[in-house]
Design goal:
Layout (H helix, E strand, L loop, with lengths): L1 H10 L6 E4 L6 H8 L3 E6 L2 H13 L5 E5 L12 E6 L27 H17 L1 E9 L15 H11 L5
Parallel strand pairs: 1-2, 1-4, 2-3, 4-5
């Protein structure tokens, strides 16, 4: 929660009021955004995660906070614009995302056959999010890396993310 609050204070433009998280996950950023009276939308592939987070925020009367059951690699709403995009996406091969039935979801990026397929799915989600970002606003990503289990080398996700964002017209 402290990092979420810090991100909002450092990167939300003056008068900004909306945050989008293309890889919704946990409740922290939505809760902090709602606490400050901001609109928050997250797309998340796990219904159990959406239900849990929405229930927590509803109990605190955070009406403008929502986790939407959707895959960010295919989600785009031309009617929505956000003042900040903040996400902490999955790291390849580190976690397995499961829903109520305990099975890994078919659209889980971590279920991809390769790191490249995983990366491309993440980047498609970023590309869709960028289209919903207001001009002169920030896209903040808490990114980490993981290792190739075959040779132990890092995939270099941070570097690839920077190059991708620059190719999308953003500055790093």
């Amino acid at each position: 929660p402290f990092v979420c609050e810090l991100i909002l204070k450092l990167f939300m433009p003056k008068g900004g009021k909306s945050v989008y998280n293309p890889f919704g996950g946990g409740v922290q950023m939505g809760f902090v955004s709602g606490f400050y009276g901001m609109e928050y939308l997250a797309t998340e592939i796990r219904k159990n995660q959406c239900d849990s987070n929405n229930a927590i925020c509803k109990a605190k009367n955070m009406d403008g906070v929502e986790w939407k059951l959707a895959d960010s690699s295919s989600y785009y709403d031309a009617e929505k614009k956000f003042d900040l995009i903040f996400t902490c996406p999955p790291y390849y091969g580190v976690e397995t995302y499961k829903d109520y039935d305990g099975k890994q979801l078919a659209n889980d990026a971590n279920a991809s056959d390769s790191y490249e397929a995983f990366r491309d799915m993440l980047f498609k989600g970023y590309e869709n999010a960028i289209k919903m970002l207001n001009d002169n606003c920030f896209f903040a990503i808490m990114v980490g890396d993981s290792r190739d289990p075959k040779n132990g080398g890092y995939y270099c996700m941070e570097a690839e993310t920077e190059v991708f964002l620059k190719r999308q017209g953003l500055q790093v």
